[in-house]
Amino acid sequence: MENQEKAHLSGEIKTILKKVSRTLYLSLNILPEPVRSSMGLGYLLCRALDTVVDTPGVQAADKLEIIFLARGLDKPDNSAALLKKIRSLSALPAPQGERELLLKFGKILSIYSSFPPEDRAVFSGLIHGVSSGLEMDVRTFPGGGPSSFAPVLSPGASEGRGPAKLLLSEAGPAAFKTARELELYCARTGGAPGVFWTRLYRKALRRSGRSGSTFPSENGAEMIGSALQMINILKDMAGDLRLGRCYLPQEDLDSRNMKPAELLLPSNMGRLRDITAKWMYWALDRLDLCEAFVSAIPKSEMAMRAAVIWPVYWAMDTLEEAAHSNLLDPADRPRVKRSRIYTTIAATPPLLLSNTAFARGYRFRRETLIGSITGGNYEGRAI
User: Fold this and answer.
1) Same domain for 127 and 226
2) Which residues are CB-neighbours of 208 under 8 A, at least 6 positions away?
3) Within-domain flag for 205
4) How far, CA to CA in Å, does 60 sit from each of 44, 46, 137, 242?
5) Residue at 344 is within a domain
6) Which domain holds residue 325?
7) For residue 263, which of 31, 246, 315, 329 sits 20 to 30 Å off, Cα-Cα?
8) Which of 63-77, 136-150, 157-171, 312-326 is modeled with the greatest confidence?
9) Is 164 inside any structural domain?
């Protein structure tokens, strides 16, 4: 089966994976089979559903139907209906990589169906978890599009005749109500993939005759995955707001007497600083589990260790950028430079053979990041 597995992420499908997530592609490409194919396939299935939820012009009812069909992917009727639905959306506006993903969804389903039933079973928790999170997305943010939630300024503000004030009578983004809702969303859309990764690795160990009893807990994997999702939310905040989505909970905004619509003005970043810092620390607290997580992976499994170390380091680099960015400004979206990504890869070998070296690098990044969160100057980069 290994030769078949190696073909799963070749050609067009591998190209799509590279287009929709550069850093994930790098992490997956070093993994051994069959973990690499399963991880790549799981990501593409979930990314296709996420693309549907993000695509403007798709009615909420259609999004919910697609999510429902995905939960029953092993039923032939559901699979056929899901493919038909997604193909009908492939002509709608979407970034090139994601449009290709929808166009090639039939091939992705074909690859999924080629896995034996015992291997497909591990996908169930992933799809159910992520689809539950996406359902929260649709039910909380049922409408909106790229032009639906642009800031509407007070008369004269754009000509410099007065301060910029948002006309709050205009429709604005919706928001999660409580912190618990946001945490649950992260657990489903980020935590479920973390658990999926852990289960795949345990299966790989069992197949090779080794024990996975010392491998980190699924709870640890869920928390690290939740942290990665929170970082995605923070870096994409400005764009999501313009799609009608405020993931920061209303109860947090109430503490600053703010409405979601006010977050459409980048000049309000200073008022939001304590709230975004709170959620940066929330993510960092969960990333702290990575030391135990990496230490529990045998040093002989160097590719597996790298596939954890790289996303964690890149996530911390992204948080570092976020701490110095105006997260309400679409032009100031946190982005890790390509050179930084490849510098991390080049510095990896010592980390694979020494848990102490990894912990030292992590803690250095952590201390630097805490200083940036505490003293980050959002105001200086506001427009």
Assistant:
1) no
2) none
3) yes
4) 22, 18, 10, 17
5) yes
6) 141-148+171-378
7) 315
8) 312-326
9) no
